[in-house]
Design a protein that fits this description.
By secondary structure, this protein is α+β, with helices and mostly antiparallel strands. Among the domains are: about 25-130, Tetratricopeptide repeat domain (Serine Threonine Protein Phosphatase 5, Tetratricopeptide repeat, Alpha Horseshoe); about 320-390 and about 415-430, Tetratricopeptide repeat domain (Serine Threonine Protein Phosphatase 5, Tetratricopeptide repeat, Alpha Horseshoe); about 450-565, 3-Layer(aba) Sandwich (Rossmann fold), CATH 3.40.50.10610; about 570-685, no CATH class.
């Protein structure tokens, strides 16, 4: 009996010991998984780290440190909604309130919930008045609101509480530089270098700030120091290559890019910079090869694609067969937009394709189909006639005879369709204005505005060096081939406003634009200040901010719309007979039947002294004109003289006074109205398409919850 009791007691002790061991094993397992995750997280292997943390949480769902670490990894992977969710879970099981709340607030900023983020930061400060990280967060909110001085004050408060804080010193240096306080910025940099000389990022940002003030020697020295401290710091290698490029040391730039590519061939930005350097060396084919490789790795890199297309346009023969390959990208993009019923986007892509491959029948046929869809039959006829006249000749001997008399060339269905349309439309055009008045509208000089676009390199582009030059050229290209607006761009930067004004006025321009580009990882801003070339006064400020895919193309289209809406619709009297006159304004200029104009003596119209719009004296008005017959490029109607004598002459000018009601206008515009001036005499949007474009731009701006800048992006990178 006693033996049985001993056995039972032993079994009970064994079972208890077993469960104790299991519990201990579980606890250790959760901790070891957490530590494993920490190692992965330190190596920036966030996916493996997340896997380890999740396994730890499966064992212990109340493990607050694992929830917090999971939130940190989600933040690094831009999964901000998950980050907020995990922070809330972590807060249930921990007393580490400030760290988790600050991370949650930073994720809220990334989600555009700025007011919610501000509330969280203020809650932290109410409990922990000396918390430095929450002050950093409030400073970032000030930067989003455009208040640099407020952000500076917040960083100074943080620095008072921790005089050697690396993030505070570097943030203050960046903000001070943005405010133009270079000496103050340098003082903060020197302090950061004094306290944190062994930190590679401190030397990296010191190099960046030196490059901003064109101190290439110090910039190169600091970049090389960052590399010596951390030989795997790829951003420092890239910055060093940028510094060498700024000094025109192109051979060294290529070597540096090759070194980066050797270690990671998928670095598309290295291929981009290598292509730029090779272009500057005159090695065009090598540059094309570099850009092609970069685009194969990152097809969404719009600036690299523009750089490639610009050197192709400037250096390769128009007959080069490779042009069709590069144009095919835009044809495919246009097809995507067509499926989504995005007409303006589709039209832009076909225009880009034709810029790259003017002789390409594929792009031109698609472009012609847009014209037919908009019922622009005169322009459609011009395009398909060009296609057929430039179709490659075919050797008849290679075809089989269908009878004993003549060989027959095998024609595609598209070719047959084009030939049928040419025949039908030629007969239709007998009664149009061009035939009636014996005028060929496609050879008219319809230039009314001459604008120069300049850029000033006054900032460092960390993502795409030379972005200002490439985007400025792209602004010029989107007007190319359109008769009504001539936009010229200088191939080199101007030193500033003074040089731009001098050049534009000497060239007799109407306006000049000084362009700037701000590029972030996921957004871009194109800003331009428009000036009168006659007086040098400001006409307007234009700014376009876009995020998401195809953001640069979207920004370019919107910038074009904004500029065209400032330019009054102007025309010219081509001929007159009795009370009927022929003008060079038509449907493609946004004109409809019933449009009213004032007719002004030629050479008497000038831009106003300041602001948009035009000026002419009342005494220079010779009468009024109302459009009655409106073709695509021409219109005719009734002229009513002003005064007793009829002093109307050919080449007198027309200024739009009033368009018919909006019910008669197409708010979506057309493939040709996209590129024509669309303003009234006061420089306000006149056509319904231009007004709708302005309304759409407002809607797009409201959709952007928070506008990032390169400064914010740089500060957020500080660890």
């Amino acid at each position: 009996m006693g033996g049985v009791k001993i056995i039972k007691r032993f079994a009970s002790v064994t079972v208890c010991a077993f469960f104790a061991v299991c519990v201990s094993a579980q606890s250790k397992s959760a901790l070891s998984l957490y530590n494993e995750g920490q190692n992965f997280q330190s190596a920036a292997n966030y996916y493996r780290a997340i896997e380890s943390y999740r396994e730890a949480l499966d064992i212990n769902p109340r493990y607050s440190d694992a929830w917090h670490a999971l939130a940190q990894c989600s933040y690094e992977l831009d999964q901000f909604e998950l980050c907020v969710q995990y922070c809330d879970e972590a807060l249930k099981f921990t007393a580490r309130y400030s760290d988790i709340q600050n991370l949650k607030a930073m994720a809220l900023i990334s989600l555009g919930r700025l007011d919610d983020a501000k509330t969280v930061f203020n809650e932290v400060l109410s409990r922990y008045p000396n918390d430095v990280e929450s002050r950093f967060g409030l400073a970032q909110l000030s930067l989003f609101n455009g208040s640099l001085s407020s952000a500076e004050s917040m960083y100074l408060d943080a620095l008072k509480r921790d005089g050697t804080n690396r993030k505070a010193l570097l943030s203050l240096a960046l903000v001070s530089a943005e405010l133009g306080k270079d000496a103050v910025a340098q003082r903060y940099v020197n302090q950061a270098l004094q306290y944190h000389s062994g930190n590679a990022q401190v030397h990296f940002l010191a190099a960046y700030l030196a490059l901003r003030r064109n101190d290439f020697v110090d910039a190169e020295r600091r970049a090389r120091s960052a590399i010596q401290i951390d030989s795997s710091y790829d951003a420092a290698y890239k910055l060093l290559a940028d510094i060498l490029y700024a000094q025109k040391r192109y051979a060294e730039v290529v070597d540096m890019c090759d070194y980066r590519i050797l270690h990671n061939r998928s670095l598309s930005d290295a291929w981009y910079l290598k292509g730029l350097a090779q272009t500057q060396q005159g090695q065009i084919e090598k540059a094309i090869a570099s850009f092609n490789t970069g685009l194969s790795l990152n097809p969404q890199d719009e600036i690299m694609r523009l750089a490639l297309e610009q050197i192709v346009d400037q250096n390769l023969p128009i007959e080069d067969a490779r042009r069709s390959t590069w144009a095919a990208y835009h044809i495919a993009k246009a097809a995507e937009y067509k499926r989504d019923f995005k007409g303006p986007f589709e039209r832009y892509e076909y225009q880009r394709a034709l810029t790259i491959d003017p002789l390409g029948s594929a792009a031109r046929q698609k472009y012609a189909s847009l014209l037919s869809r908009d019922k622009l039959w005169e322009s459609y006829l011009q395009q398909i006639r060009f296609i057929e006249e430039n179709r490659p000749e075919v050797d008849l001997s290679s075809f089989v005879q269908t009878d004993e008399n003549s060989p027959v060339i095998k024609k595609s269905s598209q070719q047959v369709e084009n030939e049928d349309y040419i025949e039908a439309l030629d007969s239709m055009m007998i009664e149009n204005l061009a035939h009636t008045w014996n005028v060929d509208p496609f050879y008219l000089d319809k230039t009314r505005w001459n604008i120069s676009v300049y850029y000033v390199v006054d900032d460092v582009q960390l993502i795409h060096p030379d972005a200002e030059r490439i985007v400025t050229q792209a602004v010029c290209d989107i007007f190319r081939g359109e008769a009504t607006t001539a936009v010229e761009v200088d191939s080199a930067a101007v030193s500033g406003y003074g040089e731009a004004y001098r050049l534009a006025r000497a060239a007799g321009k109407d306006y000049f634009v000084i362009l700037s580009v701000e590029e972030m990882e996921r957004s871009v801003r194109i800003a331009g200040t428009v000036y009168s070339a006659r007086t040098g006064t400001k006409t307007a400020d234009l700014s376009v901010y876009r995020t998401g895919n195809a953001r640069l193309a979207s920004a370019l289209r919107r910038f074009r719309q904004s500029l065209l809406a400032l330019l009054p619709i102007r025309g010219r009297v081509l001929a007159h007979a009795s009370k009927t006159i022929l003008t060079d304004l038509g449907k493609n200029d946004g004109i409809e039947k019933g449009a009213e104009f004032e007719v002004v003596r030629r050479g008497t119209i000038s831009t106003v002294d300041s602001g948009p719009g035009i000026f002419y004296r009342e005494s220079d008005i010779v009468g009024t004109y109302v459009a009655e017959v409106v073709d695509e490029e021409l219109s005719s109607g009734t002229f009513t003289k002003r005064g007793f004598y009829d002093v109307l002459n050919d080449d007198d000018e027309l200024v739009l006074v009033k368009l018919p009601s909006k019910e008669t206008q197409d708010a979506d515009g057309s493939v040709l109205t996209d590129t024509r001036p669309a303003g009234d005499a006061d420089g306000n949007a006149a056509t319904e398409a231009a007004k709708e474009a302005n309304r759409e731009a407002v809607r797009e701006d409201l959709m952007v919850a928070a506008t990032e800048t390169p400064l914010i992006e740089m500060i957020r990178s500080i660890r």
